Amino acid sequence: MIAENEIIMLVLGMGVYGFMVAHKQGLARIPYHRLFFNAYRILLAAWMLTVLEGFFLPSIFNFLEHLCYACGTGILSLWCYKLITPGNDI
Amino acid sequence: MLILVFDTLTFIFTVIAIVFLVAGWKRITGGDIRVLLSILLTVTIFYTFCMWLEWSGISAALDPYEDFSGALIPTIWAFLFYAYIRQMMIQDLRQSREQIIENEKRMELALNGADLGTWDWDTKTGKMMLNERWAEMLGYTSDEILPHISSWEALIHPEDLPGVMDKLNAHLRGETVSYETEHRLKNKQGQWIWVLDRGRVIERDNQGEPIRACGTHLDINDKKRFDAQIRQVQRIEAVGRLAGGIAHDLNNLLSPILGFGEVLTDDTDLNTEQREVIKKMLEAGFRARDLVHQLLAFCRRQPMEFKTVDLNEIIEDFTQLLRRIISEDIEIKIVKTPHMPPVNADVGQIEQIIMNLAINAADAMPDGGRLTIETGRHELDETYAATRPSVEPGQYAMLAISDQGQGMEPAVRDHIFEPFFTTKGEHGTGLGLATVFGIVKQHNGNIWLYSEPGRGTTFKIYLPVTQDVSYAPPATPEGIGIDLQGTETILLTEDNEPVRHLTKAILERYEYAVIAAKNGEEALAALTAHQGPVHLLLTDVILPGMNGRELYEKAIQYYPDLKVLYMSGYTDDIIAQHAVLGKKIQFIQKPFSVKGLAHKIKQALSTNTD
Q: Under an 8 Å CB criterion, which residues of A touch B?
């Protein structure tokens, strides 16, 4: 089943990713930017998977979607930890 | 089931992230970033919670909000990215501004350090931008000067203006790479100060016409003064060399005149009239000899007998004599600084300095006044030495002699130490201050003159303090009551024939055996051919071929006990680098008197050679 909101999430997410890529050089000055970018990329993958599950292999893609959420937030959490560690001020 | 575990993990990770965010709230710069991160994590928690409720089967009541919050997540990320980029841009701008301020500060410090005034000239309108230092150099504040090229032109010395404008116009036409002149500008007090003006056109229009020029002004007044002092010293040095050469030749001419004159006075066959003529001739000769001595003092060829002395003691002893010479309507004030450091000096020459300066001071006060003689201790540091030519930094003993006379004009001051320069007309020889200058320089000292018209004159003499308090010159035998006759054999070497004949005649008169030679080679040949002892070598310092010292060094190989007495019109560096007589060196200066030579011969013969 394709939900309208999931398509909107994906479109918005892709647009933001385009913005991120376009301003990669400037954003690269964010401390531990790789972690930050990867967290977003994994969340974006989750949004892709949730759309894909509407077309085929729903259980597998659904499983991967939730796995991606867990991984994405895990990395985001790690980035927050690194961010507040002394010496990482931006 | 696994999905529920993943959602639980997602929930936990997000909560942990929020905990980190709160814990390190102050460490994250940028208020909007902190807020956006908080919103992002909160919305993510809510979204995850909605999913968790749905998959756990507890409730589907939050499903509509799940859709909404899900759409919010990428939107908040977008804002977050934007906030970061904005912050970076602000940070860059701030850094650029700080860098500009820092650069401006550095530039200002550099300009201040280099003591540079700056100008920026709009050549089309004539308007100028001048910094504070530019105006300050001339004693103005920047508000007091109209920032226009015409103001600058008005300040230039009329004599310098054509040259300055020529150079400036040539540069404006593009004929020179840059513009540079040294010229005088009038300061607020109306005095002229020298500046080094440098600049270049930095902008031209399409036709090549200048639009804008920038440059600097540097105050070179001190440098100009320093250069003038160096030129004066060089001029005096040159005159000194000339005077030294003349004095040497005069000495050689005077030696036979005075010597044979003295020999004649002993002739018992002369009548009174003849004696009177010879006496007058000798008086003129002695005056000429004194003049030559003064010239030698000026050109620093005067032989010196240095010893460690206290300037206070010299003044103490000499004041008695000075009071008899200086007229009574002049008060002599002595200001002695206690515990003066010792200096290495020739007492007679220091007395000569005091005498010459005191007489000049007295002449400058025909209606009476006060003559002050003062001593002091001074340390001339590196900074002072850098501003004065030929001054070595160190500890100095100062001797100052001041009067309350009419003072001097700058034009007189510039030439005052030159020989034969006098302000006394026919009454002055022009050698008094030149002699003082020469003596001071021979003592490795410095002399400075401070004088203003109507405000009197002060001469300050700085003599280097000596650490050697042990050195004292050999005692000079008085000669009075000594039998000047001798029986010893003397090897006389002198290239000047009249002087050689005179010297031989004098020595033979005192019954010495004399072997005469006109140069070193001839002297050595005579020495080897001679049978019997030779007691003394009397030699000119400068000889054709080997010099006097070299001759002595060879001669002592034949006669190890041979003593030596050098004679010369002046002492050259061969015998004494700085005209200092060492303990072992005996020296007589030409022209010498008959008895003077006889005394010196006795003295040399009685000196131990070791």
A: 3-6, 8-9, 12-13, 15-16, 19-20, 23, 26-27, 29-30, 40, 43-44, 47, 62-63, 66-67, 69-70, 72-74, 76-77, 79-81, 83-86, 88-90
Summary mean pLDDT of chain B? 83
Query: pLDDT (tens digit, 9 = 90+) per residue, B135-165?
Result: 988 999 888 888 999 999 999 999 999 999 9
Neighbouring CB atoms inside 10 A of B287's CB total 10
User: Is A76's CB within 8 Å of B88's CB?
Assistant: no
Cα separation, B36 vs B135, whole angstroms: 55
Instruction: Name residue, tokens 């400068």.
Output: B542
| Token pair for B565 | 């007495």
**In which residue are the tokens 């010369």 written?**
B568
Q: Do B75 and A84 touch (CB under 8 A)?
A: no
Residue B582 confidence class, pLDDT cut points 50, 70, 90: very low
Whether the CB-CB separation of B571 and B250 falls below 8 Å is answered with no
Mean pLDDT of the B365-380 span: 87
ipTM topping 0.90: no
CB contacts, 8 Å: A88 with chain B: 27
Q: What is the mean pLDDT of chain A?
A: 86
What single-letter DSSP state applies at residue A31?
T
Minimum CA–CA partner of B25 in chain A: A84
Cβ of A26 and B88 within 8 Å? yes
Q: Do A62 and B3 touch (CB under 8 A)?
A: yes
CA–CA dist B203, B135 (Å, integer): 25
**Would you give the distance in Å from CA B418 to the centre of its chain?**
20
For B347, phi and psi rounded to 5 degrees?
-55, -45
Q: Find out whether B10 and B49 touch, Cβ atoms under 8 Å.
A: no
Which chain B residues touch A70 with a CB distance below 8 Å? 6-7, 9-10, 13
pLDDT digits (tens, 9 = 90+) for B250-295: 877 888 888 888 888 877 788 888 888 888 888 888 888 877 777 7
- Measured in angstroms, the CA of A72 and the nearest CA of chain B are apart by 8
Alpha-carbon distance B588 to B575, whole Å?
Answer: 12
Which of B37, B67, B74 lies closest to A16 in CB terms?
Answer: B74
- A67/B291 Cα distance (integer angstroms): 116
Q: How far is A74 from chain B (nearest CA, A)?
A: 5
Closest CA to B43 of B74, B2, B4: B74
Rounded to two decimals, the pTM is 0.45
**Predicted pLDDT at B195:** 94
Give the pLDDT score at B508: 87
Residue, of B222 and B193, whose pLDDT is higher = B193
Q: What is the pLDDT of residues B75-99, one digit of tens each?
A: 899 998 999 888 888 888 999 999 9
